[in-house]
Known about the structure:
The structure is a single chain. The chain is mostly helical. It has one domain (3-177): Up-down Bundle (Four Helix Bundle (Hemerythrin (Met), subunit A)), CATH 1.20.120. It has helices at residues 3-30, 37-49, 51-69, 75-102, 109-141, 144-153, 171-177. α3 runs antiparallel to α4 and α4 packs antiparallel against α5 (109-141). It is elongated, with a radius of gyration of 17 Å. The chain starts with a helix and ends with a helix. The structure holds fe (ii) ion (2 copies). One fe (ii) ion (FE2) is lined by residues 8, 12, 55, 59, 127, 130.
Amino acid sequence: MAAILDKLHNDHINFSKLLVFLEQQLALLKDCESCDLNTMVEAIEYMKNYPDLIHHPLENVVFQYYLDHYDSKNNDVLEVMEEHEEMPLLTNKLLEILRSVLADVPQERSVLCDSLSAYLSVQKEHMNIEEAKIYPQLSSAFNDQDWKNIDSELTDVEDPLFGRQVEQSYQRLRLHIL
Ligand SMILES: [Fe+2]
Ligand SMILES: [Fe+2]
């Protein structure tokens, strides 16, 4: 697998670990148990700062190259690129709800449950389509020169949570997730 796809795939593995944590919190919420709101906020802040801000734009460069050179009407690719536009809005909405709960603003438990549940579904479905359909398509379509061309457009940004250098603000979260 090309190094870029390998990196994107590895990102998905990491995001899945975070989603497992959030799923556990959702199960607690549904059982009317107390959940770890602080860590949930940190997890969603990470979703805003890395997947939404770095991973998806990186995918957009690769996907756009595929549209430009191989299949401009590929529905799966067009759809996930559209989702890349919408996902930061969902992240912000969920973050807003979590922060208001943390600030003791009265909030129905079901609002947080529904928002978190919808968020998790969107994230998982999105990654599944990329993994099952899009990445394999790119992998078989692109040649070495394509990957070199794409690589020249990219800047390497380290993952602040799962990378070699864990940012100070994510150290607590990392201990929780791993
Ligand atoms: Fe994506
Ligand atoms: Fe992705």
